[in-house]
Each structure stands twice: as structure tokens, then as C-alpha cells.
Design goal:
Layout lengths: L2 H8 L1 H24 L24 H29 L6 H26 L4 H25 L7 E2 L3 H27 L15 H28 L4 H26 L4 H23 L2 E2 L22
Antiparallel strand pairs: 1-2
Helix pairs in contact: 1-3, 2-3, 2-5, 2-9, 3-4, 4-5, 5-6, 5-9, 6-7, 6-9, 7-8, 8-9
């Protein structure tokens, strides 16, 4: 392999991490669009106006904010394709990495299309919610790729008993449910992205209470998982991942309660949306810490120890 090829292959994991961070950043810029009322700053799609693909001076700051969010999609696409080519030139070539990289590379333009549909439907709250959930799915894909690059392709080796793994997966399902219901809460609240955008019609107090109940359930499951891992003397990295998840959940929950009782100030809402991405990433970290994957060594590649040298008497 040429030197540029080796450098590109070595950059696969940093590129996957950059893609993960950028997809979390898309949530932040999307929050900025919504919270500044810039959701229709570019009133059509794929053009920004009927006559221009870019924002114009007449559209003001709202046009700049919304168009800036669109531009981030091109950064995500560039990172995704760079990661794909980095996995493609690796030797030996690993099919699982290539498939994951392709899924991410195709998912980002798909996410852009859903973003366009949100504009064309005048910020329908259910479509906006789907836009957010797709970002969560892309974060999962990027995280999986980042972790898979750093491990082997052998069969997964569990590090904890099956009941603990089941508890961890239940915790992950509830974590996703918390995020999904949080999206519905946002769709019932005041931050629609534009003054003329409709809400989903649900009672904000009722759906917020349901969301809070799920948060309490998630924290309870996470604490139970942490105690179970300690009782079983699980690997330190696994216990640490569970502890980090609990800390993130408490921080996210605190932000959520403060924003609710202070009538949803925009900075706290933005922090809470970013916190959703961080919570989801911490959840994925727990799942990944429950097993390890050794490298595959082909029989022909098995390294045999060299025969011991016979001592020679002097």
C-alpha cells in the first residue's frame, strides 16, 4: 500500500469520531434554527428561495441561520465519504466496517431530504421529530463504526452474564424511549421554529409528565445495572461506563426540570437537546462495554514460537 493509502487507512477511526461529533453538532445547529424561529428562514427546498440556492441579504439573520444548518450537511457528507474510503483501503479489508460506512454515508443525504420535507410541510412537528430521531440513529451508526474500527472481527465474547446483558438492553430501549417522547414534548411546546408552525396538539403538561416518568425509570434501571455490575465484579471499564451513564442522566434530568419550571429558556432547551445526544452516546458505551471482540487470525497466519536456542557450553 502506498504511503497516502496507509495514512488514510490509519485515519479511519479519527474520521469516524469526527463524524460522530459532527452529527451531534447537527443537533445543536438544528436547535439554533428552531429556537431562533429560523425554521423557514429558507422557505423552500432544495433551493433556499425560488431563485437562489443560497440565502440572500433580504432574508436577514433567519436565512443565514437556516442556510448555515443546511451547509453542515455537506460537512457530514464529506466526513462520511472520507471515512468510507479510509475503511476501503484498509488491509486486510473488513467488510463489516465498509457496510457500516456505506450506511452512514447514505443516511446523511437521507437526513437532508427529511430536513427538506420539514420545510416543505411548514415545520410539521411530526416530521421535525423524525428529523431529530434520524440524527440519533446516525449517532448510533457513527459510534458503532468508531468502536468497531478499534476491535477485531472475532465472535463477540460476553464479559457479564446474560441477565445483566438483558438488563442493559432494556435500559437502552428505555433510553431511546425517553428521547423519542422528549421529541413529542418539544412538538407540543412553544418552540416551533416559526410563528406560523403548527404544534402536535397534545397537552404539554401531560406529555411532559409521561416523559418525566420515563426518566425516573431510566435512572432506576441504570442504577440497578451499576449495582449489579459491581456485585458481579464486572470489568472496571464496564462499571465505569454505567457510572458515566448515571452521571449524564442526572445532569440531563436536572436541565430538563429547570427548563420546564423556568418556562423553557432557549439556552437550556438547546443544552437539553445536546444532552439527549450525549445520553444516547453514553448508553451505547454501556452496551459496547459488555463484550469484547478479538481479532481473527487465519490458520496460515498463526505465529508459531521460534524454537529455543540450545545453550552452548563454553
Amino acid at each position: 500500500m502506498s504511503r497516502p493509502g496507509r495514512r488514510l487507512a490509519a485515519a479511519a477511526r479519527p474520521l469516524a469520531l469526527a463524524s460522530l461529533v459532527a452529527n451531534a453538532g447537527l443537533i445543536v445547529t438544528g436547535a439554533a434554527v428552531r429556537l431562533t424561529g429560523s425554521g423557514l428562514g429558507c422557505p423552500t427546498w432544495p433551493k433556499c428561495t425560488d431563485d437562489s440556492y443560497t440565502t440572500t441579504a433580504e432574508m436577514g439573520v433567519h436565512g443565514m441561520i437556516e442556510f448555515g444548518n443546511r451547509l453542515l450537511t455537506f460537512v457530514l457528507v464529506a466526513l462520511a465519504f472520507a471515512t468510507f474510503f479510509a475503511t476501503l483501503v484498509q488491509r486486510p479489508r473488513r467488510r463489516s466496517l465498509i457496510v457500516l460506512a456505506i450506511v452512514i454515508a447514505l443516511g446523511i443525504p437521507g437526513q437532508g431530504v427529511v430536513g427538506g420535507i420539514t420545510v416543505l410541510t411548514n415545520l410539521n412537528p411530526w416530521v421535525v421529530g423524525l428529523h431529530f430521531i434520524l440524527s440519533i440513529a446516525l449517532i448510533a451508526g457513527c459510534y458503532a463504526l468508531w468502536r468497531r474500527i478499534g476491535e477485531g472481527d472475532g465472535r463477540p465474547v460476553p464479559l457479564v452474564p446474560a441477565p445483566i446483558r438483558h438488563l442493559a438492553w432494556i435500559t437502552a430501549v428505555v433510553s431511546f424511549a425517553v428521547i423519542a417522547v422528549g421529541v413529542v414534548v418539544t412538538g407540543s411546546g412553544p418552540h416551533a421554529g416559526d410563528q406560523g408552525a403548527k404544534r402536535n396538539g397534545l397537552d404539554p403538561a401531560t406529555i411532559s409528565q409521561f416523559h418525566a416518568d420515563l426518566v425516573f425509570l431510566l435512572i432506576g434501571l441504570s442504577v440497578a445495572l451499576w449495582f449489579a455490575l459491581r456485585a458481579l465484579d464486572a470489568p472496571p471499564a464496564t462499571i465505569r461506563a454505567a457510572a458515566v451513564l448515571i452521571a449524564v442522566e442526572f445532569g440531563q434530568g436536572l436541565i430538563g426540570f429547570v427548563q420546564y419550571f423556568t418556562h423553557l429558556p432557549v439556552l437550556l432547551v438547546a443544552a437539553h437537546m445536546l444532552g439527549a445526544a450525549v445520553t444516547w452516546t453514553a448508553t451505547l458505551a454501556v452496551l459496547w462495554s459488555l463484550r469484547t471482540r478479538p481479532s481473527l487470525i487465519e490458520p496460515s497466519e498463526t505465529i508459531h514460537p521460534a524454537p529455543a536456542r540450545e545453550s552452548v557450553a563454553l
